[in-house]
Amino acid sequence: MMNKGFTLIELLTVVLIVGVLSSLALPQYMRSVERSRATEAMVAIKAINDAVYAYAAGRVGNTACPDSFKKLVVSVPGSLTNRDTLKSKDFKYELNKATHAKIPGTNCAGVVASREANGRFDYKLWNPYTSGSTGKSVSLACTGSVGKGKEICESLQIYTSSTPY
Questions:
Q1: How far apart are alpha carbons 34 and 40 in whole angstroms?
Q2: CA-CA distance, 37 to 55, in Å (whole number)?
Q3: 125 with 164: CB under 8 angstroms?
């Protein structure tokens, strides 16, 4: 009678091959997941900046800037940690944080999204409006500490080494 099955050597070989393949694929998968998180934050930043613009446009002289997320008509998932800080699952959004990046048509500073993932993926996203720019900017900027945060910013092709705000 002949036993059907795999030998120990065959099983160990398969486990070794699966281990090597997953060690090669896992970092790329993690980078893709982090890029999608960053993309989600970029969409939220644009929505928040548009809500700030709408808020200021409704005020005389476009001089009033919101000091709280509660004053904005925008839906970003998360919870308020204080008036000007919204904490989502992956990012912390701060109103009026980008003081050198005024939202066009207003005197309001832009929004900054910070990703702090225990040193693994630490970076900040913001809209680099410049003084006197007109219209709505579609570009975003990203700065990250050395390592994975900088790598994510570079992979999004929006990395800058300058101080964001």
A1: 10
A2: 27
A3: no
DSSP 2: P
pLDDT at position 134 is: 52
DSSP state of 4: P
DSSP 40-105: HHHHHHHHHHHHHHHHHHTSGGG----SSGGGS----SSEEEETTEEE-SS-EEEEEEEEEEEPTT
Please answer whether residues 125 and 141 qualify as being in contact, where contact means their C-beta atoms are separated by less than 8 angstroms: yes
Question: At 14, is the pLDDT very low, low, confident or very high (cuts 50, 70, 90)?
Answer: very high
At 63 the pLDDT is: 64
β-pairing verdict for 92-102 and 109-116: antiparallel
Q: Which two structure tokens, joined as six digits, stand for 155?
A: 């992979």
